[in-house]
């Protein structure tokens, strides 16, 4: 189950037309994977997916879309826009020895 739809991502980024649908879909998948890895569990484990988690994924999709030339060269792989990690921190799985 995807955290958000292609249509919602396009609305968020104010993208019209279908020329970049495949690219945006790729960014949605990448953002959802990044978020799941960050919190330590699949987003599909949430039922329903919380609105703030969707918001974090939307921010990450928009970031990937806006800085795609940087991402192409691998410079932004570990970067996330301000606020994404802050939103996801409350959902993060903590393990013994994780500093908490």
From TrEMBL:
It comes from the Bacteria. It holds the Pfam family Phage_connect_1. NCBIfam families: put_DNA_pack (TIGR01560). This is DNA-packaging protein. It comes from Pseudorhizobium pelagicum.
């Amino acid at each position: 189950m995807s955290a958000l739809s292609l249509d919602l991502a396009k609305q968020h980024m104010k993208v019209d037309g279908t020329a970049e649908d495949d690219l945006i879909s790729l960014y949605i998948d990448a953002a959802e994977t990044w978020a799941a890895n960050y919190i330590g569990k699949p987003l599909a484990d949430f039922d329903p997916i919380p609105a703030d988690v969707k918001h974090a994924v939307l921010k990450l999709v928009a970031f990937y879309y806006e800085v795609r030339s940087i991402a192409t060269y691998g410079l932004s792989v570990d970067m996330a826009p301000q606020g994404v990690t802050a939103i996801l921190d409350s959902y993060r799985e903590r393990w013994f020895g994780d500093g908490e």
